[in-house]
Amino acid sequence: MKKISTWIKTLLIFAVLYLFFFLPLPLYLEVPGQAFELNDMVEVDHEYFNDSGDFYITTVGIQQATPFTALSSVFPFRDLVTEKELFGDIDNYEEYNVIQNYYMDSSINTAIQVAFEEADKDYELLYNGVYVLQVLDNSSFADELKVGDTVKSVDGLSFDQSHDFIEYVSAKEVGEKVDIEFEREGELLTASGELIPLDTGVAGIGIGLVDNTSLETVPEVSIHSGEIGGPSAGLMFSLQIYSQLMSENIHGSHKIAGTGTISPDGSVGRIGGIAKKVVAADEKGAEYFFAPDDELDEEVLKVYPKLQTNYQEALDAAEAIDTEMEIIPVKTISDALDFLEELNQETTALNIHPLLGTIIDEELLAA
Q: Is 83 exposed, middle or buried (0-12, 13-18, 19+ CB in 10 A)?
């Protein structure tokens, strides 16, 4: 009897330990991720860039929490977040990944566009249809469309931009039937359904959408981002592509990390998790870190009075880890390029300064 009691106690101990260390919680840990070298990711004209120095993109790591790992959230730069905070209204992890991949692809396209604009090189922007980011539960197409599909046409009509697509559909009546053609993983499919009333009061298919575009360029540009998702690498991708287009080592021999979305006009946008990205960049040995120099809306500050700009968040993180890495504020890609040009001029001046000093000393001795 005593032996059985001992076995029960042992099993209970193992069960408790298992639950403590391995039981997945509906919570996630956001932690510093990694800094990845862009020399290994970006191909221009089928060639990678091999020179001194590096540009780096930075990431935030996401881990599903257990009771044990949840305790680590008491340490700096480790935040415990709920599924709602992480995924928003998306309750499907597969859909979340699809959307993150879309944001990365869109960011890459915009980065290429901006780099070609800066390099004064031609490109062609192609409109591929409407990318589905959300399907409403009450949509007639809820069983047909999936997040990640691209709607190519409605009633046999294709469009040059999503505005024209929306205008065509919204001019119809609620309950009117439409036929759509959409693409999924390279396969063209069709579906029919009735239009539903949207919150705006007009008829609609019942999807959240954005433009699905691509670029044709000469030389060809390929970015191999792997499983990294989201739009925050836009700025750094633009800088790397521009450097290769110009056949110039614009970062010199320096290690430069950064983050920020990029818009077609070259403006750099706010991103999340910048403090953790500063930590990741510092761990990689980066010397400089580009941070979006965003401006906070006064109405937003009324709701979130403790909200900081990305630049201030990055400065605070750098101070907290006592890094020698310098935080550089940028509003546009031009700000980043101007900084790099000035940095390289300073580096060149420092490199030749000892020689100049020798010449001056010799002239003084000759006098």
A: middle
CA distance 120 to 114: 10
Q: How many helices (H) and strands (E) does the chain have?
A: 10, 17
Asked if residues 41 and 225 have their Cβ atoms less than 8 Å apart, the reply is yes
Phi, psi of 253 (to 5 degrees): -100, 15
Nearest to 115 by CA among 203, 2, 216, 244: 244
Checking if the pLDDT of 105 tops 50, the result is yes
Q: Considering the entire predicted model, what is its pTM? A: 0.86
What does the pLDDT look like over 279-311, one tens digit per residue?
999 999 999 999 999 999 888 888 989 999 999
The dihedral over CA atoms of 128, 132, 133, 136, expressed in degrees to the nearest 10, equals 160
Q: Which amino acid type is present at position 29?
A: L
Q: Which residues pair with 81 in a beta bridge?
A: 28
Tokens of 167: 């205008």
For residue 367, the model assigns a pLDDT of: 34
Query: Shortest CA distance to 58 belongs to which of 310, 242, 295, 244?
Result: 310
